[in-house]
Specification:
Chain lengths: ~160, ~400
């Protein structure tokens, strides 16, 4: 091994050392900066248990605003059918769509409900949209027979300790 | 990490602060995307409610509890149902809050600051049942319009405040007084500033009861905002809508109060029984006063499987509006036979009462445990859904849980 080779070897060693020092300093700096920004390291803590959040967020991000999934208007939970957007635009300004989806009425009672909202709750005149809205409601949210007492449904069985 | 990521992270931190949580994968957010959480905040965090509670409505906020969640004798906030008719007021300043007394039948119209109210009158604490008039609405057939409450729109918290009667005596009430009506700080869903979402009240006799309070504490702490901070009217045993939240004004009326949701068919039932689905004229509808006798099995949760030979310990609460519950029974054979449960006295009038029983099952198989309370007038809970009414109020049918013995 001549002197030149030896010198090259030394330079390589020094360069390696410098690299290692630099990389470690950068990582320490990176960690410190992160801790400064997020002192509770909450990003990592929530990361694992909330994996599902990623899927939902990802789908929502790609969604258009009025996406329909399995026949349901995702944003409101209303059934996709003729008149859907007329209902969304006229009936979800003041109250949640949940007030519609929870309820089931005959035509007469849906009409009465609309009149009540017009008389007491500042609902506007629906004009030509009224028939579209009522048809949609009667078609998709008609009363279901329950009888005088229903069976205990949706039982979540578990071993009692 | 590139510089723009630092900038983005900075924005994310402020967004996270708004949401009160971290935005996982926030760095992959497309620019200009409005987070759903900001459009529609997390109600469980916002109102400090347990995640097992069920949101029935988000505009206005209506959240119901479940039988097995309201197991405590004193309901904690996290399991207390939320009922709103309008938009919850914001930026409430407790220091400047005041309540006025006016109306046709007031002798001296007066305004008290919250501080005066607290220092001038003696404080009282009671455990009081507040149950939504529409609790159990989901069982009516034909269905009734409104939030489809199951069994969880009931609570019994410890309320501290001043007696309404002490204030009424201070302002003076004319002989012709009939009713008091409240006015609150919540706003109408339509945004119309001239409309009140709800302005109900009670007969003057109920206002004079010792347990009727203007309350400023719930379970020893400031009342949570969603439950009426800083001042709530409490009228135990009556539909919870009588217990107005965010109270700004009390009107002493010479007639039945005619505020929002006092008239029409709101919080009214037919004065005489009607057939299911009947149309009832307005003048034939009567205002609901005391709530009917009712009970809930709060332990175990429905769906328990246990081995034969082991007795099942059940427990729960029973209440009866203005009355006391005098008898508590359970059945494991669909109402064919009934056995008595152990029933405690209420800690004060209008508080719910605790019951318990130890049940032995004769053989393996599917059972339902039914609970039936009887009030001081001998009125019991029906096994089927009681008399139909257009708005689906007052369903006090017996509570049932499913049990399997293996």
């Amino acid at each position: 091994m001549n002197k030149q080779d030896k010198f090259r070897e030394e330079v390589k060693k020094v360069r390696r050392l410098v690299c290692i020092v630099f990389v470690s300093m950068m990582s320490v700096a990176g960690v410190l900066v992160y801790v400064m920004i997020d002192p509770e390291l909450s990003f990592f803590r929530v990361f694992i248990p909330r994996e599902k959040v990623y899927e939902t967020n990802a789908t929502v991000q790609e969604d258009d605003y009025d996406k329909i999934e399995n026949g349901i208007h995702v944003r409101t939970g209303l059934v996709e059918a003729e008149g859907l957007m007329t209902v969304v635009n006229n009936c979800t300004n003041c109250h949640s769509a949940k007030l519609i989806t929870q309820n089931r009425m005959t035509k007469e009672r849906w009409v009465t409900t609309i009149r009540w909202m017009q008389e007491t709750q500042n609902l506007w005149d629906l004009g030509a949209n009224e028939d579209i809205i009522i048809d949609y409601l009667v078609q998709n949210y008609p009363p279901r027979k329950k009888g005088r007492r229903q069976g205990l449904g949706n039982i979540n069985w578990y071993k009692l300790k | 990490m590139k510089r723009r990521h630092f900038v983005k992270k900075g924005t994310l931190i402020s967004l996270s602060a708004l949401l009160g949580t971290d935005i996982v994968f926030g760095t992959t957010l497309p620019e200009g995307y409005e987070l759903l959480g900001l459009q529609d905040p997390d109600p469980f965090k916002m109102f400090e409610k347990d995640r097992e509670m069920e949101v029935l409505n988000d505009k206005p906020w209506n959240i119901e509890s479940k039988a097995h969640l309201i197991d405590d004798a004193v309901t904690p906030n996290k399991y207390m149902f939320v009922r709103n008719n309008g938009i919850i007021p914001e930026n409430i300043d407790e220091e400047t809050w005041s309540v006025s007394f006016d109306g046709e039948s007031v002798v001296n119209a007066k305004t008290y600051t919250l501080r005066e109210l607290k220092s001038k009158f003696r404080h009282y604490t009671y455990q009081l049942v507040l149950e939504c008039g529409g609790n159990g609405r989901n069982e009516f057939d034909p269905p009734a319009k409104g939030n489809q409450w199951k069994v969880g729109a009931v609570s019994c918290a410890r309320w501290t405040g001043v007696r309404m009667k002490d204030i009424l005596e201070d302002v003076g009430v004319k002989d012709n007084a009939v009713y008091i009506g409240y006015h609150s700080a919540d706003t109408h869903l339509s945004g119309d500033p001239d409309k009140e979402p709800i302005s109900r009240g009670m007969p003057i006799q109920k206002a004079y009861q010792e347990e009727t309070l203007l309350a400023f504490k719930m379970n020893g702490e400031d009342i949570p905002l969603v439950h009426g901070f800083p001042l709530r009217l409490i009228a135990g045993g009556w539909p919870a809508s009588v217990s107005g939240k965010w109270i700004r004004r009390i009107s002493i009326r010479d007639k039945v109060h005619d505020g929002a949701k006092m008239t029409g068919d709101a919080y009214r039932v037919p004065c005489r029984p009607v057939e299911p689905g009947a149309k009832v004229r307005e003048e034939d509808m009567c205002i609901i006063e005391s709530m009917p006798v009712k009970s809930l099995i709060t332990y175990p949760r429905s769906g328990a499987i246990l081995e034969q030979g082991r007795p099942l310990q059940i427990r729960g609460h029973a209440w009866a509006g203005e009355l006391e519950v005098v008898d508590m029974e359970y059945s494991i054979d669909f109402g064919a036979t009934w056995k008595k449960a152990k029933l405690q006295k209420p800690v004060n009038r209008l508080a719910w009462q605790q019951f318990s029983a130890s049940i032995d099952f004769p053989k393996t198989g599917y059972y339902e445990v039914w609970a039936k309370a009887t009030d001081a007038l001998g009125q019991s809970q029906p096994m089927v859904v009681p008399g139909w009414n257009p708005k689906g109020y007052l369903n006090n049918a017996c509570h049932r849980i499913a049990v399997k013995i293996v």
